[in-house]
Structures are given as structure tokens and as C-alpha cells.
Amino acid sequence: FRKLSRVRPGQGLVFLSLCFLSSTLGHISYSVPEELPKGFVVGNIAKDLGLDIKRLKSGRARIFTHESGEYLQLNSERGVLVIKERIDREALCGQRALCTLQLQIILENPMEIHSVTVEIQDVNDNPPFFEKKEVDFKISESALSGSKFILDRAVDYDVGINGLQTYRLEPRDNFVIKLHDQADGSKNVEMVLQKPLDREKSEHLSLVLTALDGGEPQMSGTMQILITVLDANDNAPVFTHPVYKASIKENAPLGTVVVTVTATDADQGSNGKITYSVSGIPDNARGLFEINSENGEILSIRASDEGSLVDSCKVIIDVADVNDNMPTINVLSKINAITEDAKPGVVVTMINIRDVDSAENGNVQCFINDNIPFELKLTNNDFYSLLTDGNLDRERDSQYNITVTCSDEGVPSLSSSVTLSLHISDVNDNAPVFDRSSYEAYIVENNSPGFSIFTVKATDSDWSQNARVSYILEDSSVNGVPVSSYVSVSADSGVIHAVRSFDYEQIKDFQFCVKAQDGGSPPLSSNVTVKILVQDQNDNGPQVLYPVQTGGSLVAEMVPRSADVGYLVTKVVAVDVDSGQNAWLSYKLQKAADRALFEVGLQNGEIRTIRQVTDKDAVKQRLAVIVEDNGQPSRSATVIVNVVVADSFPEVMSEFTDFSHDKEYNDNLTFYLVLALAVVSFLFITCVVVIISVKIYRWRQSRVLYHSNLPVIPYYPPRYSDTLGTATLPHVYNYDTCRTTDSRKSDCKFGRAGSQNVLIMDPSSTGTMQARSGVFVALLFELDAWTHQLLCSGGITKRFCCW
Length: 803
What we know:
By secondary structure, the chain is mostly beta strands. It has six helices and 53 strands. It is rod-shaped.
């Protein structure tokens, strides 16, 4: 524990709390008379302390006091301190010379404490009075001048000038009054015999004692003194000690003997019999003590004999304090929460501690828990602050239960405690933290868009809104394409979804950054790298690279008849664009005319002979090889390998002219070629007919002109040439074509270009029709040339006529 002790009997400790405390302490004093009416304005607090009245109106101002709460109140609307109940100074302070009300004005947000002292001035509203209206004395006529007789003091509840000032005794023929000042400021009253008494002259005397105060107007009280004069009594009682001292504990039960006083009288008989009585009791002891008149057991002491002679002594009783009051803890103001970024030295709480015992019993020591970032500090006289003594961290300790224990130094010690619950408010001082430094996630290709790939998770040790994490996909690109076109991130859950379907053969992996951002202000964030690896799926079958399979040609492998066992015929080469086991290929012989002659290597695809070739083996061998991958399910491709058992190439060619595949292909091609030849022949015949018709028409025209004696235009045989400058058929082509039933043995020859004679005609002549006919014929010959070129291309295995 850490301890803070203040030794001031009857006074208290004060602890003040507020989140943001202004340590300014103001003080102001007022003085008002007692007995003022309710609602009387004591003072303008707002004006005198320089406070903004809006702060008072907001309800954040209040009064704290131990005893004056029932007398004064704060009018927040007007900012003034007013009388709540009529104040009776005598009831409040008794005979204390200075009567004050102490209170504190507490303002919050920010907190200020202002001390206010209100002095209550006495008003002369109480006259002096005697507890007894009359007293009797029996005095021997033999009493000597100067004999003293103690009288009861008068009581005046007022103080100062308004209190008891003097006494007056009437008549004063035999007695006078003497006053003796006491240490406590009171005065003892003695009646002194000034002139001897004469019983024969006056057996009874009646005196009036008047007590006067100094107030304005002056007030008084009286007591009658009755004196009986007796015969001579020689000796007065005498106390064994002029002063007796005694001590009694404050909690002593009723009837406890405090002290016993003893007096002696030298007389005999009734004049020597002593009785004891009490006089001159202080105001604060009235009614507390009494004396046994027979044996002198206290309190207070006057001894007299039967002859009415008296003696007096003083008894001083010390009331010893007993530790019967524990410290009282009063929380002036308290907050429920403080932000975790509060700096050391911020005042958190202020408390008032009070122990009404005295001396060691009233000395108070206060303790708080150890190992917490708080301390107790004296700020001003009776005010103690509970302050922060270190850095706060809500994530480490979100709440402190601070126990303030106060113990006095009495035996046995008494203590009391109060627990203050203080919550630490969150400040956004922690960024989100991912549960991994980086992530790797896998996704199988050919996924559906929107597929959930993976979830990233970040936590924030802050609280509430400051701990609310949102996930954001950072801008980046993958192969020049924004990463947002590949994946998306759920802002709330951190789930990563695929935006598109992935193809392992196009992209095998990529990475991007995800940012986790909290909801604080300003927000804090952290990043993590996520790597997505696309897993291969067996979505691609094997592709055969060799032998090449084409629709218009045939590849055959030749095996000599002299081949030995294990002869390498060919090798099937295939690839699979998948990866891993999906790309592991195996080769099997699916179909063969003679399975006993060939085998295929399971791993390498090599086709080898497994026995010696014989004459009985067929010349043509057709092998179907299947290539399978190792995926689940597996995919495959089939390739046809043509093998011929022969020793020369011509033998091979002749053997493969009747393959069904070639026959089907050539049948289709022949159909279209015959159709093309029929169309060309039709066009050619039509052209010849047109030319002949033109010639006949021109011959007839020339005959008409000849008989009409018109000039004759020489006629030149037509040459099919460029007549319109279109560069169409600039030469005359001769074709020499020879065809056989086997297109691979056919031949096609192109002759030399013929002469380039040009048909010359008079533009004004009627040869326009002939020129157009020439163009048309030229186009026909062009088409004919293209057709023959097509016919002469390789791969045609059909019979047709030679032109």
C-alpha cells in the first residue's frame, strides 16, 4: 500500500474527481447575521467568483458541506447563495466566539472547487438567566468580614458584547459581588461579606442578584438570594485540596464515580457535619455530573456544615477521548470513465475524509491499492486528489476498482473504505492485426464466378466502433489487368470471392494486398499479402503432335521385312497442357490387325516390333494408339498409325490407293470437279454459238454494204486479247492435258503464249458488239485456265478425260 496521512484532529480529507480538472481553487467569505428569513441572498456567487452563469444553469454546480446543507442553498438560475432555513447561531455554534459555515461550490466539466465561508454574526436575542430563581444561605452571625459565598453563574447564550457582561447585587448593605475570570473565559461569582451580620437586628435578609449583557438593547436576568442569620459557628469546612483533577472516558456509563473530594470541619455536633453541593458548572457540563452530598463523590463541589459555613474547591475533569468513531468517507464528485490517453497527473477523484475523534484517534491514514497507475496527492489544505500516475491502456485494463481505505491511529484502529469503479474509455490507438503475416489460398480452375476462395481475419484490440474492422482490396494489377477483375473482398467478413472463372493454363498464381481498416477517427489500418494459387483440373485431353493427322493426306510408316525384334517403327508424340498427374501420359495399343507384331511403350509411346516380320504378315497394318492422361477422370486421344511392311516406296504407294478414307474423300472431290467441268463446258459452247452468230451477222452486213457501193472495211480475224484496257487475258494460252485414273500419275502442261495480235476497229464502226464478245470469251478462257490449274493439283485420284 501507499499511504498518505494528515494529522489534524476534527478535520477531514477531501478528494476531488473529474476527467478534465481545472485545479483552480477559489475562496470567498460572506458575513450575515443570524435569524435571517428564508430566501435571503447571502451573496452573488457567480459575480464574486467570476463564474459563467450558464455553467450554473446547466446543472453542473452543486454544494458540498458537512453541516450547512440545511441552512444554505445555491440558486443556479440567479447564481446566488440564499438562506434555506432560519439560522440560530446559538443552536449552531453554542458559545464559540467565531461561528462559520464552511461549504464548497463544485463545478464539473471542467471541474472547479471554490470554498465559501459564511460567518454567522450574533444578534442579542437571548437574555441572561439563572438556572435557579432563588438560593438559600444560612450564615452565622459570627462570620468574619471577607467571608466568601459562591453563587451560581448566570447563563447567556449570546456571545461577545451580546453575552453576559456583569452582575449587580442589591441591596449592598452587608454584601458585595466579586467576579473571578476563569481560563475558559467565564467568570465565577462570589458574594463577599463586607459588614458583619447581627441576628438580633435582622434574622432574615433578601438580596437580588441581576445579570446584565452588553447588547443593544440591554437584556438582564435575576435571581433572589435568601439569607438566614444563625448563631455563632466557629469553624468552616476545609477541603483537603484546593484543586482536584480527574479523568473519565467519554463512553463511561452513567453512575461512574469520577473523583471523591473530602472536606473537614473542626466543630462538633451539627456544626461539624459537612454536606457537599455543586456550583459554578460550565455550560458544556451542565446536567452531566452530580455529587453525593454525604460523601463528596463528584461532581462539583461546595462543602458546608450545619452551621452554614462553606468552603469551595475546584475539580478539573478531563474527559478522555475514546476511539469510538471511524473515519467517514465522502465522495465529493466522481466520474465513471476516463480516456486511456489521459496523461499522468490528471485528477480523477476527490474525496472528503472526516474523523470526529481527537488526538491519535482522529489522525487518519489513507491507502489505495498498489500496482495501479494512480496516486494520492495533497492539493490544498484539506483537499486531496486521486491522480493518474502512469499511462493507461484500456486493452490491458479496461476497468479499475480503486479501493480507498482510511484508518485512524487509535487502539484498536478503526477504518472505513470506499471502492471507486473507474472505466477506461477507448481511444483508437491500435490498428487491426491479421492473424497471419501472409496468406496462401488455393482454388481449382474452372470455378464458378462468385466462388468463395478464402477468408482473411483481422482483429482490433480496441472497443466498439474503434474495433469494427472493414476489409478493402488494394488497387493493383495482374498481368496488366486490375486485380478487382479477378477477386473481390467482402468488406464485413473478409471473404475473398472469385470474380471470374480461372484457367490454370493461363494463370497459375497471383497475389494482391488486402487492407484491414478500423472504424475509428482517424482510422487505422494494416495490410496483408494474399497469394492465390490456381490448382489444375483435368480439363484438357492429350494432343497428338506426331504422326500428324490431316484429312487430305496419308502418312504411313514403312517396316522392312528384314526388321528384327524391337525394331523402332515410329514414336507417337503427345502433350497435355495440364500439369502434375493430369499431364502424365500413358500410351496403349487400342486396336491392331496383328497385336502379336507390334507393341507401344507405356511411357514413351514408341511403337516397336515384338517379333520377326514374316511373309505371311499383311502388307498394310493399321494401328490405333490411345493416349491417356492420369487425371480423374482421365482424358484420352486416339491416333491412327498406318504401317506398311515393304522394302520399296513404289510398293508402298500402290498398296495405299484403296484406303477407305481416301476413297471417300476422292469421291466427294470428283463430284464437285465434274460439276465444275459441266458448267465451264456449257459456258464455252454458249460462247462459241455467240461468236458464230456474230460472224454471220457481220458477213451479212458486209454483203449489204458491198451491194450499196459503200467503202469496204477490211476484216481481220479476231484475236482474243485486251480490248478495253483491263489487262484481262493478255495472252493466248494453249493447254495440253493428260489425265489417268490415278491422279498421282496425271500430268498437266501449259503451252507458250500465243501471239499478242490486237483487234483494231474503227470506233465509229459497228464492231462494238464484236469487242464485247471478245471480252466475254476472254473471261471464259480465264475461268478455263483456273479450272485446269485446279485439276492439275496433287491429291486427285479419279479418272477423267483429257482435253
